[in-house]
Specification:
It holds the Pfam family LysR_substrate. By secondary structure, the chain is an alpha/beta fold. It has helices at 3-15, 18-25, 29-43, 59-86, 105-117, 130-138, 207-217, 231-239, 284-299; strands at residues 48-51, 54-57, 91-97, 121-127, 144-147, 159-166, 169-174, 195-199, 223-228, 245-248, 259-263, 272-278. The protein has a 5-stranded mixed beta sheet with strand order 4-3-5-12-6, with helices on both faces. The chain has a 3-stranded antiparallel beta sheet with strand order 10-7-11, with helices on one face. Helix 7 links the parallel strand 8 and strand 9. The model has no long low-confidence stretch (mean pLDDT 91).
Length: 300
């Protein structure tokens, strides 16, 4: 049985008449009758009871009509989905993001707007560091990434980045810390004797590496006395007086009592949250996301 025969059968069943079904299908009646007979031969049973004024479904015909309609509906849906995927309106996008990305209101705005505009493109989200995302983009295990490129460790050449918004590194310290007695931005060199709190198990190619670079530029290596898995935990340790932290400015949106943030004087403290993708593996779906993300960042 082919799809054409199934469509012919459904038309006859719905019209309950070969002549009307033939007109509906823009066929002459003899070829239609031959196709129905061939279908009945394949099924091994009559599908219609032929009468003078039309036809009536047999029990086998009733079952075939019910399940045939479902099969055609699924086929039409699959065909439509495939066509929309070819136009970049359906499919799957695997999107990575760093821990700081969801803090930005624009991050959730981009995801929400994209899902509303393209409901048939499923977004599969993965929390991963910048260095992990770079590897996954290169290996084609990820389609897009919200990441924070390090100024000292460039991404692979096949990775294209679009800057979304600036998010400079700043000092986070207990509110009664002596360094905060003077107003204004803080110089990195004043932290040389301070205990630092870093992200645990983080690559030197990411934020930790950026902080180490800032310190080394003024002649010291940061003394790391505590590590934590996420930014919220780091801020909690800062509030408890275990040390200071240098984090993206956006972490100031996490309300932790007794923690104050200050900008840094170093021009190298600049940092950007970016959208990255492998330029060798683009798709219509991917570029629609990139376009929407760039527009949302411009409007932010």
């Amino acid at each position: 049985m082919d799809i054409r025969q199934l469509r012919y059968f459904i038309a006859v069943a719905e019209e309950q008449n070969f002549s009307r079904a033939a007109r509906r299908l823009n066929l002459s009646q003899p070829p239609l009758s031959l196709q129905i007979k061939a279908l009945e031969h394949e099924v091994g049973a009559p599908l219609f009871l032929r009468q003078r004024r039309g036809v009536e479904l047999t029990q086998a015909g009733q079952i075939l009509l019910e399940q045939g309609r479902e099969a055609l509906a699924q086929l039409d849906h699959a065909m439509g989905t495939a066509q929309r995927a070819a136009r970049g309106e359906a499919g799957l996008l695997r999107v990575g993001y760093t821990g700081s990305a969801p803090i930005h209101a624009s991050f959730s705005k981009i995801l929400r707007q994209f899902s509303q505009a393209y409901p048939e493109i499923r977004l599969e989200l993965l929390h991963a560091s910048t260095s992990e995302q770079a590897e996954m983009l290169t290996d084609c295990r990820l389609d897009l990434g919200f990441l924070r490129p390090s100024p000292i460790f460039p991404l692979p050449k096949n990775i294209t980045i679009r800057r979304l918004w600036p998010d400079p590194l700043e000092l986070f310290a207990p509110k009664d810390h002596p360094m905060l007695r003077k107003r204004g931005a803080i110089a990195i060199q004043t932290m040389s004797s301070q205990p630092f709190i870093f992200f645990a198990n983080a690559s030197r190619r990411g934020l930790n590496g950026h902080v180490v670079h800032l310190c080394s530029r003024v002649g010291f290596a940061p003394k790391v006395i505590q590590e934590a898995e996420d930014g919220g935990a780091i801020l909690g340790l800062v509030a408890a007086g275990f040390g200071v932290a240098v984090l993206p400015k956006c972490y100031g949106q996490i309300a932790v009592r007794n923690v104050v943030q200050r900008s840094l004087t170093s021009a190298e403290a600049k940092s950007y949250l970016c959208l990255a993708y492998n330029q060798e593996r683009t798709s219509d779906q991917l570029m629609r996301f990139v376009g929407l993300g760039s527009s949302a960042a411009t409007a932010a």
